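User: Could you check the structure of this?
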Amino acid sequence: MKSQLLYRIVSVLLLLFAAGHTLGFRKVDPRWGANSVVESMRSFHFQAQGFSRTYWEFYSGFGFFVSVFLLFTAVLTWQFGGLPSETLARLSGPAWALAVCFIAVTVLSWRYFFIAPIAFSIVIDLFLIMAAWMLPKPS
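Assistant: Sure, the predicted structure tokens are below.
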């Protein structure tokens, strides 16, 4: 299996991860018993640098940031997958940086989240590490 195919697989996984995150991160299951906390986050307004905001808006904004970056990495890995081997060989630094970035995402997911983001992160990690490892050596 070539690095290009692995990057294309990662791109699809990242699209699924982004879709799941975007559709699910603001859902609150009543079984969690967090309705009063969420309602407080939504209703309590405060001034921050001249804007009236709530913690729910901060939470939502940062959640959408994550979705945007997941989509960006999906586009980036799709582009990596379309590069000729000679060009991809010159991108080992960014390839390894992306793999390390997702190792950090996995650690954060393990610490703060639950099985879906942990599973996606681990699989993405494995494919990114394999893809970076299999990059052709620059000539």
